[in-house]
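Researcher: Let's continue the batch. This sequence belongs to DedA family protein, and it's 196 residues. Same format as the previous ones, please.
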Amino acid sequence: MTETVLALIPDYGLIVVFAVVMLACMAVPVPASVLTLTAGSFAAVGDLSLPMVLLTAFLAFAIGDQIAFLLASRFGRKLLARFADSPRMGPIIARSEDMLNRRGALAVFLSHTIFSPTCPYVTYLSGSGGLAWSRFTAVALPGAAVWTAGYVGLGYAFASQLEQVATLLSNFFGVVLASAVAIGALAVLRKRWATA
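Model: Same format as before. Here are the structure tokens for DedA family protein:
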């Protein structure tokens, strides 16, 4: 799927960037990070405008994030319960909830930057009662700006080594996510051990 989406950039450019980033913020499994890196590299060679790529990715992130928050505030836990039983998504949702409970608004910022795979789930949890909209938005927008600048900037700076950067980032987030799941599992085991 990644190759198909990336192939659309030369023809549809910013429209594809906007759609994919917005959908990724709502937990649709699309390659937003790789696409944003690629859009940055297209800007480096002059095929896309760097300011427009930055603006488009940021607006898509902000709008998708707000839609996810609104959906969660309207439909609450029902939406998350649907994904929580999934063996693949369950640990991510549990980790996101734990992070939000322990860190509050800081969890929103971290999920929008360093722990970006948890972003949609922290947003849904925030909207379903974890945080007030104003507090969520005050932290989510700077996080979206950092994420956008980071990925577009990396794509722009390392346009000639884009595949290596994408692989490196993919491995990094895989390690971060695996570590988060392991820490969560250890916390649950420790809690059960203490009560046994």
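Researcher: Any comment?
Model: The chain has a mean pLDDT of 79.
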